[in-house]
Amino acid sequence: MPLLDIRGLQRSFYGVRALDGVELAVEAGTITGLIGPNGAGKTTLFHCVSGLVPPDGGRVAFDGCDITGWRPDRVTRAGLVRTFQIARGFPRLSVVENLMLYGDHQPGERLWDAVARTRATRRREEALRERALAVVRRLNLARVADDPASALSGGQKKLLELGRALMTDPRLILLDEPIAGVNPTLAREIGDHLRALRADGLTFLIIEHHLDVIARLCDPVIVMAEGRHLAQGSFAEVAADPRVQEAYLGRRRWAS
Length: 256
Known about the structure:
Blueprint lengths: L3 E10 L2 E11 L4 E5 L6 H9 L6 E6 L2 E2 L5 H7 L1 E3 L12 H6 L10 H6 L2 H20 L15 H13 L5 E5 L7 H16 L3 E5 L3 H7 L3 E5 L2 E6 L1 H5 L2 H6 L9
Parallel strand pairs: 3-8, 3-9, 6-7, 7-8
Antiparallel strand pairs: 1-2, 1-4, 4-5, 9-10
């Protein structure tokens, strides 16, 4: 059974069909690439799977459980979390403080706990801080742990976005362009982090327009076009597929 199984997913916006019966599966323990030309429906797929936008039809199953139309917080608690292309965070909070916000069972979510500062509240905050520091060390962000998020470089913000996802103890992470705007050195470091996390049991579905990154990291690779699943296989296989070349307008040169 695939970890993520999508069947007949549909979504339209103002009469335009962004997803037209998408069917795809993600196996556990893989770094699966999701590529396609602009307008293929990749980000809309992420929105529907993660609960940000409800689908008009179809089914999303995660670990055998139908999660179609669930709220984002419920999807996250189930172990499926997404990142965003534009890294989101609170600019005035430190890296550690930003990460702490995404741990579960937040003591500040109830007014009495936030005001009274009970022993249980303090224990939970300390546990969240320890978890955040462990993520910081894992992603080589220790040197900027106390810096405000606004002071981070573009690549460090991408790592913070990945760290935010890790704070939720996920099983599957949907990564939306994790390399976009990142210098080559940090891009390779992010790739190394993803491989190491995969070795520890995490699964990834990655949207990325840098095809050299997809070729280096991902197997299998899924191609979407016009809101549909178009092709799937190794990068070499989909790169050689005439349908994929046609979808990319002009049979572009593919990186290998």
